[in-house]
Amino acid sequence: METKSTLRNLIGIVVGMFAFGWLLVPMYDVFCEITGLNGKVTGPSFLSEESKAITEQRELLVQFMTHNNESMPWFFDSEKSQMRVLTGNQYEATFVFHNTTSKEMVGQVIPSVSPGRGAEYFHKTECFCFEQQVLAAGERIELPVRFVIDPALPKEIGSLSLGYTLFDITERVKAENKLANL
Fold first, then answer.
1. Rounded Cα distance, 64 and 93, in Å
2. How does pLDDT run across 111-144, given as a tens digit for each residue?
């Protein structure tokens, strides 16, 4: 009798853990949306007509930070660590990727903007983060990020930090390709 109860409790715990893990990403997205934390940046964006109508520009500092996930051996960095920009103007920053290994690899970059409240005002019109990067052994490339800071950016935000984390997704891409060929 006690064995059935223990087994039922263990199965309940496993199912509960699975459900929690499955719901964690949507819950995190809702949490970030409500609190403004994380500074998630989505695909290409452009200034709204209302923002284009704002003629008052102001200067602010944009910082660029790059990080490699612990399993990613590539060299990844921005050519400039920061730049001064005027709201409403388009700018370009260049980033360097270098596959330092002896094999072809696939990388994917995940962006974020800090402070998180500033993410909706940071409009990327072109970014390598929208695509996977395939580099041959020893290959080095330079890729741009083109962006505009919305003139509607709240006055209390005087600087923005654009952060990129580079992940090795080589094995995941290989597995997806295998499944697609079945």
1. 9
2. 999 998 888 889 888 888 889 999 999 999 999 9
Closest CA to 65 of 182, 149, 160, 161: 161
> How far is 107 from 24, CA to CA, in rounded Å?
24
Please write the tens of the pLDDT for every residue from 63-78.
999 999 988 999 999 9
The Cα 85–Cα 92 span in angstroms is 10
Q: What per-residue string of b and e applies to 162-182 under the rule 16 or more CB within 10 Å gives b?
A: bbbbbbbbbeebeeeeeeeee
Q: Is 96 helix (H, G, I), strand (E, B) or coil?
A: strand
- DSSP letters, 117-141, are GGGGGEEEEE-GGGS-EEE-TT-EE
What is the DSSP code (8-state) at residue 40? Answer: B
